[in-house]
Each structure stands twice: as structure tokens, then as C-alpha cells.
Amino acid sequence: MALWMEKGSEPLTESEKADLEAIAALKESAAFEFKEKGNQYVKMGKKHYSDAIDCYTRAIDQKALSDSETSILFANRAHVNLLLGNLRRALTDSNEALKLCPSNIKAIYRASKASLSLDMLAEAREYCLKGLQFDPNNEDLKKLDRLIGLKISEKEKHEAEFSKAVAETKELASVIEHRGLKIGKAMYRELIGLRKPVLDKSNILHWPVVLLYAEVMSSDFIEDFCETDMFSVHLDMVFAEDQPLSWDVETNYKREFVELYYEAGSGVSLSKEKLIHCLLEGTAAAHREGVGDEEKDTIEDYKQHTGPPKWIKVNERRTLHDVLKEPNFIIPGIPVFYVVSKQSSFYGKFKAGKWAPPSI
After folding, report:
1. Secondary-structure percent of the chain, ordered helix, strand, coil, rounded to 5
2. Is 195 found in the same domain as 146?
3. Lowest-confidence region among 61-75, 108-122, 191-205, 219-233
4. Which residues form the Cns1/TTC4 wheel domain (predicted)?
5. Which of 19, 79, 177, 202 has the smallest number of Cβ neighbours within 10 A?
């Protein structure tokens, strides 16, 4: 029977030819009917989008329409897939539509829109420009092209910020390494946040520094402690006579009574790679460089290597750099110095090693 004849074969009789023509007409009619039902389902809203896709698929499967009509069916199905967020399917359907009719503007628009949502910006721009060649005055395409342009500019800006952050951080890590400084896991993150050293144009490091009053666990913060500055300069400002500490009711913490200490051998020194990861935290390159991946390991290392605290007194006439490069000083993210008063009863306890920083 004509129903079973292979495509391309000639009917042997007029009756068989008539059968084939009738079947083709039925399939064509069914295809158009499925198309219209699909269009109606789209108008009915999201609950019926799957029904619309089913109708367009059935219409396509009839294989009874011209290339241009079938291209419209693929473009329609692409539209519904876009509405459902099926971006890859939408892009595939759009491309199928364009194979059948390269000038199908709606298919071009949907291919561009799907590509944009998939962050395939170059492809999205290419589709858009192709569409504007066919229809230079198409407002939807022009609006989409502007949006793509903005996305490309944003991405280029982010890439530039990323590259700059990585380059500056690697330079900073190399300077720290060249200085012979050792950086460990950050302590007191609630106090210091994401602060980190800054390298100026003269290749001088500027450190944020925490002064921690061990007796009361209060703190002061020096935002910019140049590595070439002596401690005495900053202590003179912090402990100025006209600015007493609000909690120091017994006035033990006067300039002439205070001493600074750091904890020797606290924690372990980070590798250069881990240091770079830590320094990138809070920058445009943070997530892409995997910042934080090593933090758990670092905490475990810190716990394994800590012991009873050993306090080293700081000579106020030395520079910050001179103290930081001491072999037994592992900088906990940024420098932390402990302030005690010779006038306080706490001083003896501290000097005797009977006080330790709270657990991290």
C-alpha cells in the first residue's frame, strides 16, 4: 500500500498516488492544528507551557510542512523553552529553526537571548548582528544588542579587576617573602575583618596593626603602621595624655607604664600559595582563586602546633619591619601586639606565663 512506500519512490497506480496525497494533506492539516493548539496553550499561561511544547513537537513530527513553516515551529518551541528557563533546549530549537530558514528573525532573537542567559556573550552578539543584517530596524534586536554590549563591558571590567587583583596580590606575596616575613592564619577576624598590608609606590609596606589589651581584652587599631616607623611614634599618639582610655579607671595605662609583647612561634607559616589565596580574599579574584579552601587545614595546623604562650617584649625604638622579621614571629594575618601595664596587678600574671589568648 502507498502508506508503506519509502520516501522518494513513485506510486505504481493513480489510486496509490491519491492515497499518498490524501495522507500528506491529513498530516499537513494535523500539523497546522497542533501548531494552533500550541499557540493557544502559550496564551493560557505557564501552567500550559508543557502542553504547548508537546503540541509543537507533534506538529514538527508530522514532517508535513515546508521548511519555512517548520522553522516557525522550532522557533515557537524555542520561545516556550525560554519562558521555562530551558536555555540549552531553547538554543538548540533556535538553531534547528535557522537551519531550515536562516532569515527567521524570531529564531535569531531567541538564539541570541538564550546565549545571553547562558553567558555566551560572543555567540549572543553574533546572533544579534546577524539578525540586524536581515532587519536593521528591528527594535527588539537593537535593544538586546545594547544589553549584550553592557554585559560584555561588565565582563571585561571584571576580568580587568580580576587580573589586577591577582597581579597585585602576587607582587605583595613576593615582597613579603623577600622581606623574610612569615604569615600565619588570621586571628581576631571579628576585629580586623579583611584588612591586609598595602604596598606603596616606593615598595614600602603599610600594615594595619592591632594593639590588644590582654588584661581586659579590649583593643586599639592602627590603620597605617609604616614598616619603617618606630613603635614609639605610634605609642606616643595612642597613649597621649589628653586621650585616656575610657576603661582605665585606675590610670595604669599611661604612656610611661605600657609595654608591648608579641607571641613567639604562634601557629605555622603559610606557604606562598596559601598566602596568595588569603590575600585575595575580599578582592575581585577571591572566589575564582578558591579563597578559603585551605582555611580548615590551616586551623588544624594551628591547633597542632600551638603550645604554652611565649611572650617577647618589643623594643619601642625598633621599626615595625625589624620586629616582624624576627625568626620566631609568625604574623597572625596582620600584626597583633599585646599591651600590658607595669602598674597593673595583671602584669605579674602575664609575665609569669599564666595568661594565654582565648582559643581561636
Report:
1. 55, 10, 35
2. no
3. 191-205
4. 200-266
5. 202
Global pTM value: 0.71
Q: Does residue 237 form part of some domain?
A: yes
pLDDT at 296 over 70: no
- Per-residue confidence at 335, pLDDT binned at 50, 70, 90? very high
Which SS3 state, helix, strand or coil, does residue 355 take? Answer: coil
pLDDT band at 289 (very low <50, low <70, confident <90, very high): very low
State which residues form the domain around 13: 2-152
CA quadruple 295, 301, 303, 309: dihedral sign:
negative
The answer to whether 195 and 208 have CB atoms below 8 angstroms apart is yes
Is residue 11 very low, low, confident or very high in pLDDT (cuts 50, 70, 90)? low
Is there a contact between 183 and 269 (Cβ–Cβ < 8 Å)? Answer: yes
Strands (E), 12-156: none
207/196 Cα distance (integer angstroms): 7
Residue 357 within a domain: no
Give me the number of domains the chain comprises.
2
Same domain for 96 and 25, yes or no, is yes
> 313 and 237 in one domain?
yes
Q: What is the CATH number of the domain that holds 97?
A: 1.25.40.10
Q: Kindly state whether residue 170 falls inside one of the protein's structural domains.
A: no
Asked whether residue 12 is domain-assigned, the answer is yes
Task: Determine the residue type at 105.
Answer: I
